[in-house]
Amino acid sequence: MTDIRTRKADHIELALKSMHQSQQGAGFDRLSFEPNPLPQIALNDIELHGDFLGQTVSAPFLIGAMTGGCENGELINRHLAEAVEACQIPLALGSQRAALEQGVQQDLRRWAPSAILLSNLGATQLQQSGLDLAKQAVESVQANALIIHLNPLQELIQPNGDRDWNLVLEGIENCADKLEVPIIVKEVGSGIGPSSAKKLMDAGVNWIEVAGRGGTSWASIELDRNGSEREREIAAPFIDWGMDTVDLLPAVHNACPSLELIGSGGVRHGLDIARCIRLGATMTALAQPFLAPALESTEAVIDKISILQEQLRWTMFLTGSQTLTDLRHAALQ
Ligand SMILES: Cc1cc2nc3c(=O)[nH]c(=O)nc-3n(C[C@H](O)[C@H](O)[C@H](O)COP(=O)(O)O)c2cc1C
Questions:
Q1: What is the pTM of this model?
Q2: Residue 253 beta carbon below 6 angstroms from any ligand 1 atom
């Protein structure tokens, strides 16, 4: 396997370990909905569906970016793709860089002909001739949008990571201007705050996936892979670098009310999804919680989706919210 493919396989193995999940959580437990013991609605009448990129989704969450091209990736992608097709939930691919560089077929559409699929590339790959790469990523899976991920801390910890970020914003702006599909910019677990969100908005980006602190810790995973004693000492203070998802969502929403937000980073169940929606997110994303089901089978992924949907439905019932619009106004402490 090449370096990138080995790295991806390591990431999958390590991301399954609880030691690489933030020990503090994403702050969701600090937020309680005011219980409504008089819901005045019927559970069966609750409507979870929403709109995402001009299409209907059965619930306001997507499967977050994980795999794009490693040995296990094909099987994982198949399970995820078949499940999202069956459940009308969008699927974000992991970085397609390795697959594109090696000419690996990424024919996800054979398993998910009508699902919303989101392409994925790292922002540093878009600095030079980025537009061509972005077009290839989108065309290779006939994606509905391109996700560009920002991961400066992860790049610092990786031995050969990208250290020159001078032209990253220009690369994003160029894609936002010239690509025919929408751009979504995300972090990978440290979060995007209001200052960066404003710059991205000015660069023509309409969607931000917050990916705040509280879930999978990339600093922890990368150090576990190949940290020397010296690198560990340098990186130690940055293990919990970033801001909690629950703090970032309202901050970005207030600073840039016209931006569409995807709440992510440590979202672990349907109650967290509801909290993100209440804090201003249009959609939410969960990555690591889908990893074990994706390694198992399509049915396991479908089960996970339906459990999340049911937990969201319960939250809506218990707050007396019949629709997602009602949930956005539910009392929250
Ligand atoms: C195994 C694994 C691989 C990932 N690979 C990518 C990737 O290639 N591109 C990307 O944008 N994010 C990637 N991520 C980051 C997730 O999309 C997400 O932002 C982050 O894990 C926080 O969400 P979580 O707490 O729900 O896991 C990966 C996450 C996991 C667990």
A1: 0.96
A2: no
